Every structure is written in C-alpha cells, then in structure tokens.
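Predict the 3D structure for this chain.
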Amino acid sequence: MAQGVDLILVLAMLLNFLVLGSSRLRACIRAVAFQGVLLSILPLLLHQGGLAVHMVALSAGMLTLKGFLFPWLLLRTLRDGSMRAEIEPLIGFTASLLVGAIATVAAFLLSSRLPSLPSLTSSLLVPAAMATLLISLVVLVSRTKALTQVLGYLMLENGIFLFGLTLVQSMPLLVELGVLLDLFAGVFIMGIVIYHISREFDHIDTYHLTILKD
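Done. Predicted structure below.
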C-alpha cells in the first residue's frame, strides 16, 4: 500500500511540472484533472482499518468534481469562448520548470526539518503537499490568462488537500466537503465570468484587464 501511495505522490508532483512546462491550455487542464483523479484515491489507501463511508464519500466527491466536472467546465469555457489555446507566460517555460525544480527541492528540505507524524504512511506526503502549494503559487503569478489562474487555484487546493491527508484519521469529512463545495462554486462562477469577458474583449490576459477604466 505504501508503494502505491508513493507512486501516486510522485505522479502528482510530475504533473506539477507538466503544467509548468506545457504551452497548451487543454494539456494543462487534463493534467490538473488527472492530478485530481490520482489524489482522490489517496484517502482510501491512507485510511487504516478498512473502508469507511466518509472516506468513500470524500474520494467520490473529489473524483467527480476535480476529475470530471471542473475539467468539463473549463474545456467548455475554452471552446465556447473561442479563446486561444496557447499559454502566454510572464516567464519562459524553461525558467518556469527551473523555478518548479527549486520549489520542489525546497519543499523536501523544509519537510525534512519538520517533526514527522508516526501515523504517516508515506514520507513523501508532506513534501508533495508543499511542492504542490509552491508550484501552484508560481502558476498563479507567472501566467497571464484567467483560465490558467483557475488551474493554479485548483492546484493550490490539491496541495491543501494533501496536507489534510496527514490527519486523515481525524480529518472531519464536513470540513473537506465544505472546501470542495466552495471550490465548485468558485470554479463555476469563474467559468461564467471568463466566458463573458472573452465575448466582450479580444483577450482574457489579466495584465491588460488590470488597466481597464470606466
């Protein structure tokens, strides 16, 4: 079981780099969706004492929202809004990957200095959570399109979710479901806003949107 958890966490971290290095929006959306699918398996693997109803509900909710519903909403917004599918980063893709590598190394160094919980099934859980959080912040500040910032927001929640799994034995189900519900509302509203902005303006570059005047 521990090997399966480690494999999922390594794949999740590799998907962070795929988002940083890809120039295509559709590829980034699918990468974040696949990351959500992988992370939805973890509560079932980490929960000790067999399958529990609340863990099954949490995994099913995360799989439905992050694996299917959110990607569908984002791909539909991309298609109906007739947006350009290319990502226009503020820093180049090679530099983004280098920053991502530094963030991942920093996550491992920081996590090695933290006291380890005896209940942790995998030693990769905390560094993977930190790396995902840091790389999501890189995506948020280094990409100009509103849609890519929604992806950064989803990756940020994935990192928070991984941190929550360190307390999987006592993590209250209602808190995590509440976060998922807030995330659903946020992505739904952002999808509608981005769709209408793309119909009124020639682009959805957030750099240009900040200089809009009455």
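The chain has eight helices and no strands.
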